[in-house]
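Thread: Ferric-dicitrate binding protein FerR (Iron transport regulator), structure

OP (GT): Posting the sequence first so everyone is looking at the same thing. Length is 327 residues per the record. Can we get the structure tokens written out before standup tomorrow? I want them in the notebook alongside the other entries.
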Amino acid sequence: MDERIIKYCQGILSKQEQDRLLKEAYNDPVLKSQIIDYQHVHSLLELAPEKADSLQGHEGYGNFKRLVDSQRRKVWLISFSRYAAILAIAFVSAWMLASYYFSGNITEKQELIAFQQELVVPSGQRAELTLPDGTKVWLNAGSKLSYPSFFEKERKVFLSGEGFFSVAKNEKVPFIVSTRTIDVKALGTQFNVFSYPESDYTSVYLQEGKVKAYFPSSETEGVELSPEQYLIQEGKQFKLSTMDPDDLLWREGIYTFKRQKLASIIKKLELYYDVKIIVKDKEILDYEYVGKFRQRDGVMEILRLIQRIHKFKINKDDDLNQIVLSK
């Protein structure tokens, strides 16, 4: 494999070398195929639950590099594909598509802008990717992000689930996150958006910079946020609330609950792990908990740890994909 591909994915290839690589790939089907294959596997590696920290991530990357240099490369790719079979994922390399832009063909460029890529993160996992404009995105479990292969007049993506965005600055072209209810506009900033289809609210937490949240039909009536402000949208109403910054630790695979009732915790566990949790004795829902849990531990282990504080019974039905809690 061309070492430039690996360096490009690591972000250590110079701009001139990047352009040269893309132009070469445009005319070289073999090189093009290698970039696409590597991008697929590189993205899937980010989803692996075993990646608990950066050290493990580097180890996984090293293993991958050795594998692609061996004759077992195709077998490994097939095996890994089976592991990630539950992904509804359609990746076409943004870098490869950008190479068409360098060709100067206006018709092809317009087609690329219209082409939507989609990343779906399965339950119990998370993903990280870089968009064509350099914006970095972290996606929580059960989330889906749709985005164009190339940004031009606007930078707009569609989110279902939860995502944290570190937006590349471009004062001329705002960055817009569109959800099922509201849009969030930013220039260069860092913020978190929570908008699962099963949830009865959408929320925005601003960590750095400035964003504006609004209904698509009435942008002028939107709400501008300042750093550390937390906005909740329910129905037609916006309201400011508070959010613990530790709630953003999901990007590192950690779920944090501080004096939250079990009812609230269950709602999030259902979203994150795609499972139905039924509570037979309603008083259980009022129990409050404080704790941090690793995403990779799984929903059953999290419930067992919570169970140690306030005793209740846990029964799981794998056929129905549901968990029943009772006293």
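GT: Both are above now. Quick notes for whoever picks this up: The domain at 121-243 is CATH 2.60.120.1440 (Jelly Rolls). The two ends are 58 Å apart (CA to CA).
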